[in-house]
Amino acid sequence: MSDRVRVEVVQSVAYVTLNRPEKLNGLDLDMLDALVDAARTIRTDRSIRGVVLQGAGDAFSAGLDFASAGKQPSRMAKAFAKFPGQKTNLFQRACWVWRELPVPVIAVVHGHCFGGGLQLALAADFRFTTPDCTFSVMEAKWGLIPDMTGTVTMRELAAMDVVKRLAMTAELFDGNQALEWGFVSGVSDNPIKPAQELLSQIMTRSPDAVAATKTLLHKSWNRSPRGAFWIESRIQLALMRGKNHKIVRSANTAKTLPEFAIRKFG
Hints:
Layout: E1 5-10, E2 13-18, H1 29-44, E3 50-55, H2 66-70, H3 73-80, H4 90-100, E4 105-109, E5 112-114, H5 116-122, E6 126-129, E7 134-136, H6 150-157, H7 160-169, E8 173-174, H8 175-181, E9 186-187, H9 192-202, H10 207-220, H11 225-240, H12 243-254
Parallel strand pairs: 2-3, 3-4, 4-6, 5-7, 6-9
Antiparallel strand pairs: 1-2, 7-8
Helix pairs in contact: 1-4, 4-5, 10-11
Function: Could possibly oxidize fatty acids using specific components.
Organism: Rhodococcus erythropolis
Protein name: Enoyl-CoA hydratase
């Protein structure tokens, strides 16, 4: 894995740190590859119960590093390519892999959160930010559109007129405004604290049920009632046959804390 991204696992939580502080964690092609590799590595470790995405230094991420990417035109072209059977290109995949992980992912945001950095944060399940963090859909400044999965994640969080305004203007906004518009889950002077508190709370629940809930909501959110109900039933039956459901039932009956088995779902 590239040193562009650091991964440290502490008490079953993977801390994933964008590690290019001298460039405000600008996203170059190496970092995009490293983000994908990090998520894939985490997916293989079923003992991991959650992820914290964060940035080293003074920013979460200032977005795509156009200067660096522009020096590698052939690699850029390959990064935009989608091969048969693929849902995403590299730019999209670097964000979407976090959404597809079967564990909760929390972005802890500070400093700048621009462009591709914002779209990476929005691909997390939750986001906590400092009040003075500066956000922007910065692509508009470069004559571009948000194309790193933001068309899906932004529509789930904010009203269309807000998204249009930001994507057409590259307007800067702070953490409190981000909360008002629905882009973040909470604002704190020390955002790692509410992130860790939320993960601690989630980790008291069955890892299979947590993974299943994430899958259920992502697959059913925009489905018809008929489709959503079918997904509910299929996932619930799988959970009811699982070991962790039996562990929870026994613990609840005995009024003890459950000791969960390794996650099987996802």
